[in-house]
Amino acid sequence: MIRSLRVLAGLAALTLAVVACGAQQSSTQQAKTDVGVTKDTITIGGTFPASGTASFYYSVYKGANAYFQYINTEKGGVNGRKINYIIADDAYNPANTPAKARELVQENKVFLTYGDLGTPTNLAVRDYYNSQQVPQLYVFTGSSHWGADYSQYPWTLGWQPDYITEGKIYAQYILQNEPTDKIAILFQNDDYGKDYVNGLRQGLGSKADSMIVETATYNAGDPTDMSSQVNKLKASGANTFYVVAIPGQAANAITNAVKTGWKPKLYLNNVAASTATWRGVTAQLGSSAALDGMISTLFLKDPLDTAKWGSDAGVKLFHDVMTKYGQGCDPTGADAFCVSGMASAYTMVETLRAAGQELTRKHIMDIACCSLNQTGNPLLLPGIVVKTTKTDHFPIQQEQLEKWQTDHFVPFGNLIDARGK
Amino acid sequence: MRRALATLPLWTMIIAVLGLVALIGIPLITDSFQTFQFANVAAFVIAIIGLNLLTGYSGQISLGNGAFMAVGGYTTAIMAHRLGASYALTIPLGGLIAGVFGFLIGIPALRLRGIYLALATFALALSVTPVLNNFDTFTGGHVGINLKPAQPPLGLDLSNEQWLYFVGWAIAGLLFVPAALLLHSRTGRAWMAIRDSETAATANGVNIAFYKTLAFGVSAFYAGVAGSLQIINTAYINPDNYSLGLSLSLLIGLVVGGLGSIWGPVLGGLLVVWLPYFAEKASGLHLGSVSFGGKPDIGFGLLLIVIVFFAQDGLAGLVRRGMARYRVLRTRFRVEEIGAAQAPAVASPDALEELPVGERDHIRT
Amino acid sequence: MELAAVSFGQSLAQQVVSGIASGAVYASLALALVLIYRAMDVANFAQGEMAMFATFVAYTLITQFHLSFFAAFALTVVIAFAGGFAIERVMIRPFEGSSVLTLVIVTLGLFSIINGLAGLIWGYVFKTFSGPFSTNSIQFSGVYLGIQDLGVIAVTLVVLSLVFALFRFTKLGLAMRAAALYPESSRLLGVRTSRMLALGWGLSASVGAVSGMMIAPIVYLDPNMMQSVLLFAFAAAVLGGIESPLGAVVGGVMVGVLLALVGTYIPGGQNLRTPFALLVIVAVLLFRPAGLFGRIEAKRV
To answer: Per the CB 3.0–4.6 Å rule, which of B168, B242, B331, C3 could disulfide with B128?
Structure first.
């Protein structure tokens, strides 16, 4: 008994000694000012769904990283430093993102986070990044939260045109061209869908209630079967169908509309407007007659539209970069997320470049939030300026309308500037 | 006191002391991220202890305990955000409300057995997110609710994460005691009797309905507390937090850690939180152009099947059998040393080795 | 208030017709679930993933090897059978006789593995999959029914008949039923119960493959395509009677129609489809556990 106690005591002492040593080590670590920046690398991080049901968004990372590899390998990096892009997989689950954010900041010691994907996932960690004063830059979601809440969260910034603005653009077009339309809306029952609907309503203003005759929703996890919703919308007698969905549900909804003999005018939100999807639907339907004239918006060049962009320098660069560094991103542009990934990576690189040798988090944030003025993005439509000012924190606010024709979207009209509207 | 201490096997005491030291020492040597992860482990351990009582001891398969975590989480979020309640208050409340909810669920579950119960709880797990999204005026819907980070009380020189860690493990330790007590009481025996054979249990006068619903209620209480803790840790709640994956990870953690063993849930909790982290680090694994990084699914699935095949009572069971084997060998060694004439009256080593897989006697760990 | 362009009766009829069409989708997967359940008394949570994987195989055969749809279809059914058989031998056989919980866990593990593999091999961008049926519709008094949907219904009925015939009129079917219900007695009578189990898995995998290939043109092909269908297929199987193939089909149609009606006429109903499936499952299990067409079984003590 005494012997056992002695053994115990010895073990306890030994363990305490080990722990104490460890504790001492950690207390001698120093705080660095330029965390994540060394004389030849910049380490940035981002949370992405690499697994799970939203993993099709992973291509955004692949596209962005491909561009970074290109810059590192062929352009000697940014001002002499190579970019090291570390991602943490949160499986699109906002319960996981807080741990991943801390992992990036504490373990990987990233300089900033860039391109974090998803709305709830970013909302989950916005407080953390802001309290730690780590830039949460160019988050990959069209939610209007980031620009709207800037004064509360000065370290968080979006990039792509937000969904509300897009909705307003459709509204503007409808009011100008088809002011007597009766509109039926199908939308995904979450922030994403509701933003689009609110945008349309705000854009239609006082006419919203009279023009929107019926709405139907679906949940993101439901079976991709929109027949019941479409039947309900058709029964309202609407002659215009505004579809706010992700590609699968959108395709199913419109196919159902065709099947039931409903021939409304079609408006499709940008996220669902991937050329590959609608080529597939056209093939299934046998002809594009039902789809021709479907309106959406775009702000990126579509590499699949070789007729228009085949000889464009930016698209050629995309081809090149994806072929060499794409890790599976189709160089033809079949996966639109690869395209947007690279486009946003360009903005990130140019932001870093603009900081010169003063690579502090504060400086980067100052540039991004309030003094961006980028042109020359290889994949944004010509004429789009990535811009922020002290009072405007929505980097991209210009889009162009496009119509589906046979096997691709054809842009028409002028670039619409929705800034400040 | 000394006599009581003397009757505990040496191993238990060593592990207990080491565990305590580790518990206190970990946050001193880990960085904020790792401490945060360990704080989450505490929450998962509590939830898995709860699931253990329900599935491991009373034999009711639940693929839906994530729903009870949701109840606890939303109780905390709504009370703290809308009513300004202190987090400390919301934790037991979250547990209680979840417990009531679980008890109510346990009533129809009485009529369901085995695979049917698994099916029904599977459907329950899938229903959580849509229901939460739908009643969005109440739950805040898909925008979710942001909470203020929990601060250590004034005067304590701890970081937020360290405070969360200590609170979480203190609660886990606290809740461990009633669970252990329950299991060694009449309730625990009733549960195990029900698990082994409901007919025999009824024949022996056990009130099946009461004990089964009690199991659901208690299990839900634990899950509710865990849910509250998790939300306090992450400071944000959203219906997407409660996907099917959450309920499944509880089950996986339980099975791999050790079904029906008291220590299993601790191993399970560690696994559920840390395995994905290590799986992601393995992104260096490549097969040609195919990278295995970020593919925890395949690894998880394989691990699950392997564990269930080789070690039905999980890692804890493996450890226990390993120790039993060690004891056998040590006894044999001593017997040879001392000589046959002075051999202590111990059961033959063969008898010890005949311990059935998944043995039921958990009084000695 | 605008005039409804369509009469209430017509809109109701359309909802019901579309509901039947969606229901056929759930029915086809439910058939596979029923088959597994009959073979081994356990619901296979990986059923949907197996069907999805088989469909991807078909997709590869069509797009990479340029087979016609029918050739790919036939080949996939055979490959699926072999796959199901193999999975049973390798993954399930070691667990024969294990507790329900163990089997549930194994099928959950399978679920993860197959889903992960599909994602690894084919990626997550969804693909369009052209079935053999045209996307036109037929129309009767203002109500539309797609040819594709008719096709799904027809194929499901054909599979149902084949399965029914197998179990009712063949020795093999009888042996399979016997092996599942009375394993010891069957063994004594010379039935290779273990082989029957593997056959059951193979058969159910084939039926699942057919289901997947019928469904993919409608819901589009990606590794997660079956996950939402699975729950409703379970609801259909439970409603119809988890041991009855006919029940699976009837249950599927009922679930499809009910979902359509709930979604249209109950406020907020369209967002509560999943909880509705839960309701169906729980209600049936509580009040009529054998479902519509199942038999109530007394368990031996």
So the answer is: B242
